[in-house]
Write a structure and sequence with these properties.
The complex is a heterotrimer of chains A (238), B (226) and C (184). Chain A has 238 residues and is α/β, with parallel strands linked by helices. Chain A is 32% helix and 26% strand. In chain A, the strands form two sheets. Chain A has a six-stranded mixed β-sheet with strand order 6-7-8-3-9-10, sandwiched between helices. A four-stranded antiparallel β-sheet of chain A has the order 2-1-4-5, with helices on one face. In chain A, β9 (211-216) and β10 form a beta hairpin. In chain A, α3 packs parallel to α5 (149-161) and α4 packs across α5. Chain B is mainly α. Chain B has helices at 12-15, 18-34, 38-54, 59-65, 67-83, 86-108, 112-128, 134-163, 171-195, 208-212. In chain B, α3 (38-54) runs parallel beside α6, α5 (67-83) packs antiparallel against α6 and α8 (134-163) packs antiparallel against α9 (171-195). The N and C termini of chain B lie close together (9 Å). In chain B, 45% of the residues are buried. Chains B and C meet through α2, α5, α6, α7 and α8 of B and α1, β1, α2, α3 and α6 of C.
Chain lengths: 238, 226, 184
């Protein structure tokens, strides 16, 4: 089935391995002794501010190189083969304004495609398909600064989907959204055949996930089913 | 803001490619500096105005567009009159007016997209020599344009917030947070650019034109700036 | 130029453009200071000579593309055929010099007052002396006023720019205390 079709698509995922990973930033251990094998389709990561959640996501695509240990994505090293990893793994930043780079929607989507080597004609098709997939095809020629926060976030997500990744990393996707947009994002997330790893304070978002990891001070404090992990996390800070 | 000053139209000047227009402007501008005859320069100024009018812009519109440059030229004329002599003023004023009219004729009949194309082509030899990286250059330009409206908004927000504390007119209280926010954002955006796979592979034949015009529908028409 | 450099240069160029759009801020004495040239001084003082000079180059490129990015909504190649274009081109060298001096003179370990004074000096030498040099040379040529007269007509703008230089210095110290950015 062509992956340009909006409709039923095969579920995809990658296997992300953290092998005794440590990340030291500004003198403190943002991640410490992390060993994980992430292959499930829906994985949540929770923790307090400063627990290392965002660093974990960034390390997967080599934005933060580990000071100890190694991270691989389907066998590819996150730092040495960052380009390859980034072509199959997209990161949705917390604030879409940090991620949208060109002034017009279609231009911004084209940017991601060009970076990964797609040619002109394919770019046009993929841009349209990605926008349609999220129901925002009509935003194609619009200027970014005229869009609402929720629309910008969908544009940023479309930009990631356009390159056909296998895994999407979400950094606090609902923190800046109002209720309506939050619910829209939840529906989008539900329908994504791609693997999703979601960092979130919004614990309700993760209730149906296959696996939730709780981070505390850069270490894994709990790793298991969503219900158990969330109960653990809530219990710590009741 | 991201629409240039170029407007739609069908005059011959509109249809001329940007390269020749810019080259002609440069050549005529240089020639005007070698012309010292006041009468000749007045003729040149009138011819330039006629050219500008021929692009379809009304005189009223021209007057509004060029109010600021004309005011500056008038001030220059006055300064020449006072500090030098009338003969110099009689030479300088029509020359500067001719330049202003000619340049405006070029600007208003050329879209930013077309200009971008032209500059890209002009820069290609430098790129082959490895002196300029077109992908980085065009990303930098688009990035700057993309963030102007956001920063303007943030400036207004900060000013309002500081005004609530009685500091709305304090330049430092407004500029410091604005600069800090802008730089923090710059760092985050750089991270996102890396995350999205920039730079494109060297061997791919993509150019900025392909980034822009083809991916957008109907957006390389010049628009009128309101 | 790595991605971070691109980010800093582009965002600072956007800041310079934005400062030409926001209304002037009145100083305590009621005289408003227009902010765009202040942005240019800041580019040099904060980002250093090379990146600081690239920011106004980006602005000039945007002007060349016909975009109304200079204060007052000015843009297009007409700017380059006008008598005041020398000040615009002077921004590039001015930011470079201000950045270079800031790199050499500004030490985190120094006290606030010392830093403010040295950075003001950098802003004045780069943001005023160098910029005006370019501006006055161009003006003298374009208007046939001659160097002395061109200098005389530019004189009234200097007090305002001196105030901007001091503001730029103070802003720089505070910004660099909040963030650590190397000067390049």
């Amino acid at each position: 089935m062509s992956d340009l079709a909006s409709g039923a698509r095969p579920a995809v995922s990658q296997t992300i391995v953290f092998d005794a990973v440590g990340v030291e930033r500004e003198g403190r251990r943002a991640l410490d002794g992390i060993s994980l094998r992430l292959a499930e389709r829906r994985i949540g990561v929770v923790g307090l501010n400063g627990s290392g959640k965002s660093t974990l996501l960034r390390a997967i695509i080599g934005l933060v190189p580990p000071t100890a240990g190694r991270i691989t994505v389907d066998g590819r090293d996150a730092v040495a083969e960052a380009r390859a990893v980034r072509s199959t793994t997209g990161l949705l930043f917390q604030n879409p304004d940090d991620q949208i780079v060109f002034p017009i929607v279609a231009e911004d989507l084209a940017f991601g495609l060009k970076n990964h080597g797609w040619g002109r004609a394919e770019t046009r098709d993929r841009v349209a398909a990605a926008l349609d997939r999220l129901g925002i095809g009509d935003l194609s020629a619009r200027r970014i600064h005229e869009l609402s926060g929720g629309e910008k976030q969908l544009v940023a997500l479309a930009g990631l989907l356009a390159i056909a990744p296998k895994t999407l990393l979400f950094d606090e996707p609902t923190s800046q959204l109002d209720l309506r947009n939050r619910n829209r994002l939840v529906r989008v997330l539900d329908g994504l055949p791609e693997q999703a790893i979601v960092v979130s304070h919004d614990l309700d978002l993760l209730v149906d996930f296959e696996r939730v990891i709780v981070l505390e001070d850069g270490r894994v404090a709990f790793d298991g089913r969503a219900a158990d992990a969330l109960a653990f996390h809530r219990g710590r800070w009741a | 803001m991201i629409d240039g000053l170029g407007t739609t139209g069908t005059s011959p000047l509109h249809r001329l490619a940007p390269g020749p227009k810019l080259a002609a402007l440069a050549a005529i501008a240089t020639a005007l500096f070698f012309l010292d005859d006041a009468r000749g320069l007045v003729v040149a100024a009138i011819a330039a105005l006629a050219l500008l009018r021929s692009t379809g812009r009304s005189f009223g519109r021209i007057a509004r567009d060029l109010a600021l440059p004309i005011a500056v030229i008038a001030a220059v004329g006055l300064a020449d009159l006072v500090f030098v002599d009338a003969a110099t003023a009689a030479q300088v004023v029509p020359r500067l007016l001719a330049l202003a009219f000619l340049a405006h004729a070029v600007v208003t009949t050329t879209s930013s997209a077309a200009l971008l194309d032209t500059f890209e082509r002009a820069l290609m030899p430098f790129e082959r020599l490895g002196l300029i990286d077109a992908a980085r250059a065009s990303l930098t330009l688009s990035l700057a344009l993309r963030f102007v409206p956001l920063i303007v908004e943030e400036a207004a927000e900060i000013r309002a917030a500081q005004a609530a504390r009685g500091l709305g007119s304090h330049p430092i209280a407004v500029i410091v947070p604005l600069v800090v926010r802008t730089l923090v954002r710059a760092e985050r955006v750089a991270e996102a650019i890396d995350a999205r796979g920039f730079p494109p592979p060297r061997n791919s034949n993509t150019s900025r034109r392909e980034f822009v015009s083809e991916a957008t529908t109907g957006n390389d028409h010049p628009h009128e700036h309101p | 130029m790595n991605t971070r450099d691109i980010g800093y240069v582009a965002l600072f160029a956007a800041l310079i453009v934005a400062l030409g759009i926001v209304p002037a801020i009145p100083l305590a004495a009621g005289v408003p200071i227009t902010l765009q040239s202040l942005g240019v001084m800041l580019a040099g003082l904060i980002l250093g000579p090379k990146r600081g000079a690239l920011a106004p180059i980006v602005v000039i490129a945007l002007v060349a593309l016909g975009l109304p990015v200079l204060s007052g909504g000015r843009g297009g190649v007409g700017v380059f055929t006008g008598p005041t274009a020398g000040f615009l081109f002077g921004w590039v060298a001015g930011a470079f010099v201000a950045g270079f001096l800031a790199q050499v003179l500004d030490q985190r370990a120094d006290g606030f007052v010392k830093r403010a004074v040295l950075l003001s000096l950098a802003a004045i030498l780069g943001g005023i002396v160098v910029v005006y040099l370019g501006g006055i040379l161009w003006l003298a040529f374009f208007t046939k006023l001659g160097l002395t007269k061109a200098f005389t007509v530019s004189l009234p703008f200097i007090p305002g720019d001196l105030a901007k230089a001091v503001v730029a210095a103070l802003v720089t110290v505070k910004v660099r205390d909040a963030l650590s950015i190397e000067r390049k």
